[in-house]
């Protein structure tokens, strides 16, 4: 009984992570450049079970078969496909058409990467992100917002799994990418999130049903354990 409660707890932990990911996707459905994420579930490997209740003296090994102790989150998968593009009337909005990412100078000196081209202008007339981080040009300098079509530094990655999310639409990478000369930048255009709201609502309802099933199983296990300790234990 204790083992069943432990297994159910692990299932509930997985469902909690799935729900958190779905909630994050729904909350950022209108965030420019946001990439949806999904918790990938994995079943633990089967474990061989045995005891020592075999033989005339009940002291020899008895094989009981195998048992799976539960599930776990294997990874958080990030869907890096492009979102939909929309035209805007703002001169400081930009979109990358292709695999490239804008380069962002982070406060700690590292370089960040983003598809969110909803830029602002700071007091030095430089293009910056919504958080105030400077956007870099091809020569690594800040970009003058008065330029008609700036020469952005764009970076692409052979394996986009190298990118690690830092917030809603900003990424960092341990392995530097390469200069992207194939992508193009469009002014007064933005890339939206790639969240599919129909899929997210379906996932949310499915997670809620699984929560209910596991809660019922947990209640049954708790009732059985209570009877075992309060009633059978008296015999």
Briefly say what this structure is.
Pfam families: Flg_bb_rod, Flg_bbr_C, LlgE_F_G_D1. The chain is of the alpha+beta class. It has helices at residues 2-27, 197-230, and strands at 37-43, 47-54, 60-67, 71-78, 85-87, 94-97, 101-105, 111-114, 120-121, 127-128, 134-135, 154-156, 163-165, 170-173, 178-179, 184-187, 189-191.
Total number of β-strand segments? 17
Report the sheet-strand fraction: 25-35%
Poorly predicted runs of 5 or more residues? none
Whole-angstrom Rg: 26 Å
Helix content: 25-40%
Q: How do the helices and strands follow one another from N- to C-terminus?
A: HEEEEEEEEEEEEEEEEEH
Secondary structure class reads alpha+beta
Q: Can you give the mean pLDDT?
A: 88
Mind summarizing the main beta sheet?
A: 7 strands, antiparallel
Query: What number of domains?
Result: 2
Shape label: elongated
Distance between the termini: 19 Å
User: What's the number of helices?
Assistant: 2
Any overview of this molecule?
- The model has no long low-confidence stretch (mean pLDDT about 90).
- Helix content is about 25%, strand content about 30%.
- The chain folds into 2 domains: about 1-45 and about 70-80 and about 195-235, no CATH class; about 85-190, no CATH class.
- Strand 9 (about 120) and strand 10 form a beta hairpin.
- The relative contact order is 0.20.
- The protein is of the alpha+beta class and about 240 residues long.
- It has helices at about 1-25, 195-230, and strands at about 35-45, 45-55, 60-65, 70-80, 85, 95, 100-105, 110-115, 120, 125-130, 135, 155, 165, 170-175, 180, 185, 190.
- Helix 1 runs antiparallel to helix 2.
- The strands form 6 sheets. Strands 7, 8, 11, 12, 13, 14 and 15 form a 7-stranded antiparallel β-sheet that branches.
- The radius of gyration is 26 Å and the shape is elongated.
- The protein is built from 2 helices and 17 strands.
- The longest helix has about 35 residues, at about 195-230.
């Amino acid at each position: 009984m204790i083992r069943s409660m432990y297994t159910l707890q692990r299932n509930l932990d997985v469902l909690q992570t799935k729900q958190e990911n779905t909630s994050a996707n729904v909350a950022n459905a209108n965030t420019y450049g946001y990439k949806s994420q999904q918790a990938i579930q994995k079943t633990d490997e089967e474990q061989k079970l045995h005891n020592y209740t075999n033989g005339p003296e009940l002291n020899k090994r008895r094989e009981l078969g195998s048992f799976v102790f539960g599930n776990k989150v294997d990874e958080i998968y990030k869907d890096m496909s492009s979102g939909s593009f929309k035209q805007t009337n703002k001169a400081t909005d930009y979109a990358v058409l292709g695999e490239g990412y804008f380069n962002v100078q982070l406060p700690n000196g590292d370089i960040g990467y983003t598809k969110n081209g909803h830029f602002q202008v700071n007091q030095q007339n430089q293009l910056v992100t919504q958080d105030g981080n400077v956007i870099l040009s091809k020569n690594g300098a800040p970009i003058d917002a008065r330029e008609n079509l700036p020469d952005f530094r764009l970076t692409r990655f052979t394996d986009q799994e190298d990118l690690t999310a830092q917030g809603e639409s900003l990424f960092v990478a341990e392995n530097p990418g390469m200069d992207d000369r194939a992508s193009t930048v469009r002014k007064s255009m933005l890339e939206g999130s790639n969240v599919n709201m129909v899929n997210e609502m379906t996932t949310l309802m499915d997670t809620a049903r699984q929560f209910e099933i596991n809660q019922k199983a947990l209640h049954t296990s708790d009732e059985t354990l209570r009877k075992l300790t309060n009633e059978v234990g008296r015999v």
